[in-house]
Amino acid sequence: MKVEETVIDHIRSRPRFKIFTEISREEYTIYLKSFLKEREDQFTGNINNEVSEITVKTPEENYWKPNLALRTETDSEQNKTVVRGIFGPSASVWTFFMFLNFIFGIMWMVAITIWYVEKQIKSNDFPWAFTFSMAMLVCLALTFTAARIGKWKGRKQMQQLREFAEESIRKFETYQAAD
C-alpha cells in the first residue's frame, strides 16, 4: 500500500489523498461495506462501487462536520486500484461556502472597477464604490475565517476518517497476504 499526499493538501479546504493498492474495485467495495459494519458504533456511511461517503458519528452537529468521500478507479498503467479520498463538509455546506465566495468576489470586482474608472475619469458619481469594495473584502475574509474555523473544529474527525480509510486498506491487504 502506498499513500500519496502533497503539501498543498494541508492548506486546502478539502484535503485529498490517494492510496494505491493491489485489490480490485469490487473486492474493495465488498470489504469496505463489511469494514464499515464492524465500526458502525463510530462511523456511518453510504457505499457503492464507485463512490463511498463516510462520516463520524458525533453527539453534536456542527456546520463543518467532515465527510470522507472515497472514489475507486483502476490505474491501467500500474495495474493497481487507486482509492482517492476527499475530506470536507457536506455537499450543501461546501456549495454554500463556494456560493458566498463567488458572490462576494464578483461584487468586490464590480465595486473596485467602478471606483477605479471613477478615479480615472475624475468623477464623483459613485462615492460608495470604494467603501463597498472594502466591505466585500471583509465579507470574503469572514467567509474564509469561518471555513478555517470549521476545518479546525473538525480536525479530530478528519483524522479518524483518515485512519478509517488507511486501516480499511491495510487490514484487507493483511488478510489477502494471509491467504
What is the CATH topology classification name of the largest domain? TATA-Binding Protein
Uncertain stretches: 7-11, 174-179
| Text of the CATH class of the largest domain | Alpha Beta
**SS elements, strand count:** 6
Mean pLDDT: 82
Distance between the termini: 17 Å
Strand fraction: 15-25%
Q: Please, how many domains? A: 2
Which geometry do the CA atoms define? elongated
Number of helices: 4
Radius of gyration: 22 Å
What share of the residues lie within helices? 40-55%
Largest sheet: 6 strands, antiparallel
The ordered H/E elements are: EEHEEEEHHH
- The assigned structural class equals alpha+beta
| Major beta sheet, strand line-up | 1-2-6-5-4-3
CATH architecture of the largest domain: 2-Layer Sandwich
Give a concise summary.
The protein has 179 residues and is an alpha+beta fold.
Explain what this protein looks like in three dimensions:
By secondary structure, the protein is of the alpha+beta class. It is elongated.
